[in-house]
């Protein structure tokens, strides 16, 4: 079953990518306001969010 | 549609389609003595048509709209139409395939119409043509809305959508000519596989670029499901299709793996195609369109995130349950079985979350067939994931494996879950996308709903019955220890169920045709409603858009 020596590492690597993404989402504060996040998609017409303002303008 | 492209973008599009046409010509010349040549002509024709379409508008006026004030919806619209077109073609093929099993004369004595060739047209057509186009189209819609940002450019979305459809056409036409790798859900030959890699990488990059532009700090959970779908399918596709072409001028290759190694790779791919193509992506659809249509947030957003990570980490290990009682080492089978049972948790979390979201809005489910599509899809999702975990248990599998029960299980998922959530999402999306007040005919939506539901139920019950009868007959021994029934005995028992299955599939197919008709009529005959405010938030969108020449 030499194939397992390919499939298992590939699968573990994908798991690690997932784990990294998960930790990123934690650190990034993605889960700070869960109920707000769930509600906001229902409003298409809300005002511009106070975007991290400098994002667009900074050089 | 062309009027939204700038001159530079039109030139770019001509360059891409022109190159594609050249590649087609080279393929046609190189593979002139086999099916690859025919594929070359198909690629050439596909790219040439697109080239002339663009070239026709090459010197048209430059667009004047301010891109920051609107989402880019043209590719989404085309994707929805293509999805429905594939649905009608592939489900029609499905009915034909089913009829051939009940009445073999329906082959009409041609090679191209034999069961082994048109069955993959049905499976690939439904999964990739119908499901894939719906996923691409809805992902374009959802990522822009939930990020409150427009897609970064106007060429990549077209490249991904049309490139993917070229793949589907090459795949389907290849099957009819007998071109196949003989790998379930991965039949297309090496050049089609290579092309899909290019398209898929472009898709992932497009998604990431849009997310990077987001004006909403939070990434809505649907996006995570779509990203998992794109990323994992890319890796699976590449590993499973590793093959050595017999020659670079022919449509024939040999897998890099052999025997049970190849089988393991195939089902590592195959089961995760179900997991990440047919589940993850469609859950993304569910988590966006269900709350939108019900006009209430998802019951537990926390649970939706938890079940996302659960599915992502568990699913990938479950593939080996397709190879119980084979040459595969026992511990690998047990590993697959264990993860399959564990999967029930995140799966039911999603199904329950969807139903709890509707709790308190049942009057909407009663009145609105669109929402009912999504509700029933969630029920079937719960049902088929339970059934899947159950069937993955080794002793159960000894009864169900190789019987029609498996076919019934697949269709509970594909018809009951995937197709119903897709139709529900399309009915929710079409009026928003084309700025119509409602669908053309709500009665037609009702008809579609009941046809689809009764078709699914008839189909599944027929296959459950025939599968279990088949399994029991195969394992019945006489007193002297020989098999009691011959294969033909079981076949005779199956016949009535095969007729019922064809009938159920026919109902489902008619429903899809009605749906296609209804969408076309909505676009053509329902008057434009005043658009809801629906735009990215980075712009000065509150002001009326001032036409600015770029």
Notes on the protein architecture:
The complex is a heterodimer of chains A (59) and B (550). Chain A has 59 residues and is mostly helical. The termini of chain A are far apart. Chain B is mainly alpha-helical. In chain B, 71% of the residues lie in helices and 1% in strands. Chain B has a two-stranded antiparallel ribbon with strand order 1-2. In chain B, α4 packs across α8, α6 runs antiparallel to α7 and α13 packs antiparallel against α15. Chain B is globular and about 85 Å long. The C terminus of chain B is likely disordered. Chains A and B meet through α1 and α2 of A and α7, α8 and α9 of B.
Compact summary:
Chain A has helices at 4-27, 34-40, 54-57. Chain A is built from three helices and no strands.
Please describe the structure with a list of short key phrases separated by commas or semicolons.
heterodimer; A: 59 residues; 0% strand; elongated; disordered C terminus; B: 550 residues; 2 domains; two-stranded antiparallel ribbon; globular
List the helices and strands and how they pair.
The complex is a heterodimer of chains A (59) and B (550).
Chain A: H1 4-27, H2 34-40, H3 54-57
Chain B: H1 7-30, H2 35-56, H3 74-102, H4 115-147, H5 156-177, H6 190-212, H7 221-240, E1 243-245, E2 253-255, H8 259-294, H9 301-314, H10 330-342, H11 344-358, H12 362-367, H13 369-391, H14 394-400, H15 404-433, H16 442-474, H17 487-525
Antiparallel strand pairs in B: 1-2
CATH topology value of the largest domain in chain B = Cytochrome C Oxidase, Chain A
Question: How many β-strands of chain B, per DSSP?
Answer: 2
- Describe the biggest sheet of chain B? 2 strands, antiparallel
Q: Which structural class is indicated by helix and strand composition of chain B?
A: mainly alpha
Beginning-to-end CA distance, first to last residue of chain B: 18 Å
At the fourth CATH level, what is the homologous superfamily of the largest domain in chain B? Cytochrome c oxidase-like, subunit I domain
Count of individual helical segments of chain A: 3
Highest CATH level, the class of the largest domain in chain B: Mainly Alpha
Q: Level of helix content of chain A?
A: 55-70%
The percent range for strand residues of chain A is: under 5%
Averaged pLDDT of chain B:
93
Write down the domain tally of chain B: 2
Number of E-type strands of chain A: 0
In the CATH hierarchy, the architecture of the largest domain in chain B is: Up-down Bundle
Alpha-beta content class of chain A: mainly alpha
Quaternary state reads: heterodimer
How many whole angstroms does the radius of gyration of chain A measure? 19 Å
Tell me the number of helical segments of chain B per DSSP (H or I, 4 or more residues long): 17
Helix content of chain B: over 70%
The CA-CA distance between the termini of chain A, in Å, is 55 Å
